[in-house]
Amino acid sequence: MKVELQINNSSSADARFVGWAPAPCRIRVTNPAGAILTKVQVTLSNAGAAGGGVVVFRKGTTGSFSSTLTLTLPTNGTTVPFFVAGRRASVNNGDAKIEARAKILPLSPAGGTLIGAVKLMVRIRKNAESLTTGERDRFVSAFAQLNNQGAGRFADFRDMHTAVSSPQAHGAPAFLPWHRAYLLDLERELQAIDPSVSLPYWRFDQPAPNIFTPEFLGVSDTIGTVQFSATNPLQFWRTDGVQGINRRPFFSTAAAPPGLRTEAQTLALGNRYRAFRTMEGNPHGSAHTSFGGSISSVPTAARDPLFFLLHCNVDRLWARWQRQFGRFDPAQTASYDSNPGTPIGHNLPDTMWPWNGITGGTRPPTAPGGALAASPCVSAPGSQPQVRDCLDYQGTVNAVSRMGFDYDDAPFA
Ligand SMILES: [Cu+2]
Q1: C-alpha separations of 160 from 179, 181, 299, 358, 390 in Å
Q2: Separation of CA 167 and ligand 1 centre (Å)
Q3: How many angstroms does the Cα of residue 179 sit away from the middle of ligand 1?
Q4: How confident is the model at residue 245 (pLDDT cuts 50, 70, 90)?
Q5: Is the full-model pTM beyond 0.85?
């Protein structure tokens, strides 16, 4: 007897990625012919690589998770649903593994006979400061490939974040939702190059001696030209027809930028979104302007790969704030800042440029990049997300809202 395990309700290997939020899965007997019994009891457990990803299971949409799950499967091939959630993050693709064992013979070993297994990854956004060299190098390599020395898809992401598009994304409530979608779109493009990659974040309120190195995001020389090691493909970075990155830190990059609200201070801004979103100024804006060079102003900031690690931390702060106060439900007023007179693109039901393809009038004259990249694992937030689609990223309120990313220190709410 054999069983098939479907992660994210898919038989595709491309869908074998989970985060902290529960992923819907299915199991079915694949060779029902000849089965003597109409039912078989199967136990699921972890069998991944040492130090790799670990998952937990539950049978239904509610209840607690456990490290094993016993299910009764019909032998006629009908699928049986269950849920998988990451419990420990992976380091490499496929370093988590689920095994299915059954007692199908009187001679079965004590733990049952192995009748199926699937490798998967607990793919989590991590602190860039503590990546393994493998994680770091895979991220850098995928990002450099997306840029492709200025000729790649990254140009679209560069063109999404400009002076003319700034009002779509800044200075109003959708600052956080817009950048959440922006990061996710980029991350999905990186994952199309290497599915083991997730965006790392720069905790700008902590020292980061492992980020500003020649092997990772580079070291600025005296005039701000960022220098890389000979093996770092970011040395070929090119945007806007200009070779290289200009970044002039006003602080020692082995320390944290001074004058920034710490994480604790940011999370204490208040329990309503209207209060929390003032973090757009400090720490977010302050982190940008702790450098000279392209990252210090909106029209040019996305020229620097560091932008995406900085914003990943901004998004993570929002995620942690959401968890702290239970602010995932767009229907609750404290979860968002809804005011009459809020500009287009910043109201909960508004679609967001450029993914909506709308140009002219109150929107920019072009919409670079097209629809938001699809994921093999989840269907949210859709190809043309509304602001409201970006709040419930773990599917806490509505399981179908799960956006397919998680932070190492923001467990499932
Ligand atoms: Cu921005």
Answers
A1: 11, 12, 10, 13, 18
A2: 10
A3: 7
A4: very high
A5: yes
